[in-house]
Write a structure and sequence with these properties.
The protein contains 14 helices and 23 strands. With about 500 residues, the protein is α+β, with helices and mostly antiparallel strands. It folds into three domains: about 10-50 and about 55-200, no CATH class; about 225-375, 3-layer Sandwich (Rieske Iron-sulfur Protein); about 415-485, no CATH class. Helix 3 (about 95-105) runs parallel beside helix 5 (about 125-135), helix 4 (about 110-120) packs antiparallel against helix 5 and helix 4 (about 110-120) packs parallel to helix 7. Strands 2, 6, 7, 8, 9 and 13 form a six-stranded mixed sheet that branches. A five-stranded mixed sheet has the order 3-15-5-4-14. It has helices at about 10-25, 75-90, 95-105, 110-120, 125-135, 150-160, 170-180, 185-190, 260-265, 295-300, 340-345, 360-365, 430-435, 475-480; strands at about 200-205, 225-230, 230-235, 245-250, 255-260, 270-275, 275-285, 290, 290-295, 310-315, 320-325, 330, 350-355, 355-360, 370-375, 415-420, 425-430, 445, 445-450, 455-460, 465, 470-475, 485.
Length: about 500
């Protein structure tokens, strides 16, 4: 992409973002109204190597030394950052300011350079920013295979791998950049007490879903629109969905529900009632993870004023969806259900997770003949292709994750469970299914997996009481639970 023409204010930045978003969304589908169907790709396409045909693991060079001096005490840097922010408003990068940042020589500022790459890295800007990154870190990126995808992916993965600390003003400078794209993110950045690692926060290529609860329309500006209280049918009414296609199954009390994967790939978030309980159900296509949280517990157990309404923010954290509550603007950690910003963080709200079973529609309805399934049109008159992403995520992570735990392939599906004593446990799903199918036990850390409608759920080994579980790609589960115990045959 060639450098944009300079314009004034937010319109100039949005012209840059619009062009970037068109490139970023090239592998996903969208509606005429501008709704995005899924978190979009980085600027350039990924490798052709699949998860089972992986290239040798790239070994990151040793981490550069990071200074301990407070960057806010350096007028040269503060002036350069402020000058950069002013020119970004006009849609460009201040080369002189970038030179001043590099001259100061603080490797922590490489985080800001990487952030710039996400929005302004195409064309000549890419070369300038790569040179700045290499000068700040003393590391060449030439040998990194991620460079074939994008410089932003490479630089951010390096910084995560090194655990490079952020600098004191990083949140403020990051806000200056990100809010040019989406003012709806302002409450997230404004909370100085938020338990958010600002280093990992990145843009997923779409804008915030801030529609009111029950709004059936899409997002004219381009977001991933949650589906609230979708229409459901009985199993017979689900004959439109192939028996061998994936569903995400939930059971609450005497009620069961199947969420077709193709609808989940479009909406990535559901707010609904099942078994007289209120649920928020995020699906992170990038992590392969569908999770279910009892949102009414925020009121009955946590003291919140209203039941949270979960929405997709358009932001990511190490390739994981960043979700938030529409009513309080509180951010939630998608993997743990803990509020990490806003009023709900102040109240210590942690949403209770329940099990999501990944299986096929044919097996789920055989195991749960009274199940319901989301209607073919979602109850909103929409048409859903059976394969919306068309293999977009088949070739490994397309957003920064840092180094991956090499005990398993990055995108191998595992059943993730937190044991009663707090130990995270991961069970490779395919192996566990195979062993259970021949009558053998799958047990680790006091957790046993049992078959359910063609899928797997977790129970306490001794009492048989259910334990919340869900399937996710190994890279996602292991990076958010780095001390996870891995069950092996």
């Amino acid at each position: 992409m060639s450098p944009p023409k300079r314009r004034t204010g937010r319109h100039a930045a949005l012209s840059v973002v619009a062009a970037l978003a068109l490139a970023a969304c090239g592998a996903s589908t969208g509606d005429a109204d501008g709704s995005a169907d899924a978190d979009s790709n980085p600027t350039s396409p990924g490798s052709t190597d699949g998860p089972d045909d992986r290239a040798p693991i790239f070994r990151y060079p040793p981490a550069p030394d990071a200074p301990t001096a407070d960057a806010r005490d350096a007028p040269q840097v503060r002036e350069a950052m402020d000058a950069m922010a002013r020119l970004l408003q006009a849609g460009g990068i201040d080369g002189a300011a970038l030179d001043d940042i590099v001259e100061f020589g603080d490797v922590r500022h490489a985080w800001y350079v990487a952030d710039l790459m996400r929005f302004f890295g195409a064309g000549d800007g890419d070369d300038r920013l790569v040179e700045a990154f290499e000068a700040l870190t003393g590391v060449s990126l030439d040998d990194d295979p991620d460079m074939a995808r994008s410089a932003w992916l490479s630089t951010t993965n390096h910084l995560i791998a090194w655990d490079t600390p952020g600098y004191p003003d990083h949140r403020t400078d990051k806000a200056d950049l990100f809010l040019l794209v989406e003012r709806g993110w302002e409450p997230f950045f404004a909370d100085g007490d938020a338990d958010i690692d600002w280093r990992w926060l990145s843009w997923g290529g779409v804008l915030i879903d801030d529609r009111e609860l029950g709004d059936p329309d899409g997002c004219p500006r381009g977001c991933i629109p949650a589906l609230d209280d979708p229409e459901v049918t009985d199993a017979a009414g689900g004959d439109w969905y192939p028996d061998d296609a994936i569903v995400f199954g939930l059971v609450e009390g005497d009620e069961a529900l199947a969420i077709p994967k193709n609808i989940a790939e479009i909406h990535e978030m559901f707010n609904l009632t099942l078994g007289e309980r209120r649920f928020g159900i995020p699906y992170c296509t990038l992590c392969g993870a569908a999770q279910a949280y009892r949102t009414d517990d925020a009121v009955t157990l946590g003291g919140a004023d209203e039941v949270p309404v979960l929405r997709t923010s358009g932001l990511l954290s190490r390739s994981n969806k960043v979700m938030y509550d529409l009513r309080t603007q509180s951010v939630f950690d998608t993997f743990t259900g803990a509020a990490v910003s806003g009023p709900l963080q102040d109240q210590g709200i942690v949403l209770e997770e329940t099990t999501v079973v990944r299986t096929t529609w044919g097996e789920w309805k055989a195991g749960h003949p009274d199940t319901t399934i989301i209607a073919e049109d979602g109850g909103i008159g929409r048409s859903y292709p059976l394969d919306p992403l068309q293999g977009r995520d088949d070739n490994g992570p397309i957003f920064p994750i840092g180094p991956a735990d090499d005990r398993l392939p990055e995108q191998e599906l595992v059943v993730g469970v937190i044991a009663a004593d707090g130990t995270p446990v991961a069970f490779p799903a395919a192996e566990a299914r195979a062993i259970i199918s021949v009558g053998d036990d799958v047990v680790a850390a006091g957790v046993e997996l049992v078959a359910d409608g063609g899928g797997l759920r977790a129970v306490d080994e001794v009492t048989g009481e259910p334990i919340a579980s869900h399937e996710a790609f190994w890279f996602a589960w292991s990076q958010f639970h780095p001390d996870t115990e891995l069950w092996q045959v």
